[in-house]
Target: Transcriptional regulator WhiB
Amino acid sequence: MTELSRLPGPVMDLWEWQYQGSCRDVDDTLFFHPEGERGAARRRRAEAAKAICHGCPVMMQCREQSLAVREPYGVWGGLSEDERAAALAGTMPTKTRRVG
Model:
């Protein structure tokens, strides 16, 4: 579960970037794996979600937000759950950590 204490208050300026997200008109099941999904199916779904992220004008804001609140599920800002965990642990390759 997201750590609510890390979330900023309800200030529109802090959240307005989300209106520009490329994912807004995409089925959210693409970004969150169904229970029991493993292996190649999970990798294909995550890669399809990341492809949408990589063309997104607010990818870095999304990524930074997901890392700041330690978002535990889904693809956010072009990073999977495992990639975010690695970034927070400092074990993610630099090439993947920052894009742009």
The CA atoms of residues 41 and 90 lie 27 Å apart. The chain is about 45% helix and 0% strand. Residues 17-89 form one domain.
